[in-house]
Design brief:
12 helices, 299 residues, EmrE-like, 75% helix, DMT family transporter, membrane, globular, transmembrane, mainly alpha
């Protein structure tokens, strides 16, 4: 399975991730960000662990453990706290649009670490996508919750965590296996979130949960945790970080639909235009550059 399989896996991961934004928004008012993350990645870890232990899969080398653990704390620790906290202030659709800055941030991080070149075509796509995000967020300011800008900012910071993880994790995934790498990194983040949640009493709120909230947590763990991030790691092993990040265009559409179904959010004209602009910008950035004289394409 080659790059095409990686791109498809990334798109599926982003679609499920978008649905997870809507589901997180559904329970964000009843459970704090630490506890949501602890449930999401704790359940995800337990579901993925049996698959990691069978089939003689290659685990990250011991010399890589500290860096894998650091990436786990960043992505499965800091990312969910920022992600979940943002949805206490903003809507699912706006949050997904803010998360759509991921391709931009990934291109910049990849260029800084000299993993990929930031070409003119990618820069044009970045500008188009960012314009769409800005239009959607600013034009809808009067219709958004009072503190929506805080949620938007937190989601952009969450996207930065994801961008760093996507670029920095690729060599470790290549040296091991997508499942074993994800299990190790997710386990570190889940333990950190569970310890913090226990110390702060964050789990007390679940005593009043009904069937709907438990189903939402189950979805976040099985699909938003285990499946989403396995597919993300699978994609990173088979294609470039920027091409994986570009798939995030699927995210706002899924988030807007789930947000409308679960919490009655309305998709207004500015959000619709923003989604179109984001998709257009990502399409421009994803297209290969002209073949150079040396016969290679810009990446």
């Amino acid at each position: 399975m080659g790059e095409g399989a990686g791109v498809l896996a990334a798109m599926l991961s982003s679609g499920i991730g978008g649905a997870s934004i809507g589901v997180t928004r559904f329970i964000a008012g009843n459970l704090d960000p630490l506890a949501i993350g602890a449930f999401r990645f704790g359940i995800g870890f337990m579901l993925l662990l049996p698959f990691a232990l069978i089939g003689g899969r290659s685990w990250p080398k011991q010399s890589d453990w500290s860096r894998v653990a650091a990436l786990g704390l960043l992505f499965f620790g800091a990312f969910p706290v920022l992600f979940n906290a943002s949805l206490a202030f903003t809507t699912a659709a706006r949050g997904a649009l803010a998360l759509s800055t991921l391709p931009v941030l990934t291109m910049v991080v990849a260029a800084v670490f000299k993993v990929e070149h930031l070409t003119k075509r990618k820069a044009l796509g970045v500008f188009t996508a960012m314009t769409g995000v800005a239009l959607a967020l600013l034009a809808g300011f009067s219709e958004a919750p009072a503190k929506a800008w805080r949620g938007d900012l937190l989601m952009v910071l969450a996207a930065l965590c994801m961008a760093i993880y996507s670029v920095a994790s690729k060599p470790f995934i290549r040296r091991s296996d997508p499942i074993t790498f994800t299990v190790l990194a997710m386990g570190v983040g889940a333990v950190a979130l569970a310890l913090a949640s226990t110390a702060l009493g964050s789990f007390e709120a679940v005593r009043t949960f009904g069937a709907g909230q438990w189903i939402a947590l189950g979805f976040l763990g099985a699909f938003g945790g285990a499946l989403t991030f396995f597919l993300w790691a699978f994609a990173l092993k088979r294609t470039t970080p920027t091409r994986v990040a570009i798939s995030i265009a699927v995210n706002p559409v899924a988030a807007a639909l789930v947000g409308a179904l679960l919490v009655g959010e309305v998709v207004r004209w500015n959000l619709s235009i923003g989604i179109v602009a984001v998709v257009a910008g990502i399409w421009i950035a994803a297209r290969p550059d002209s073949v150079s004289a040396g016969g290679t394409k810009g990446r």
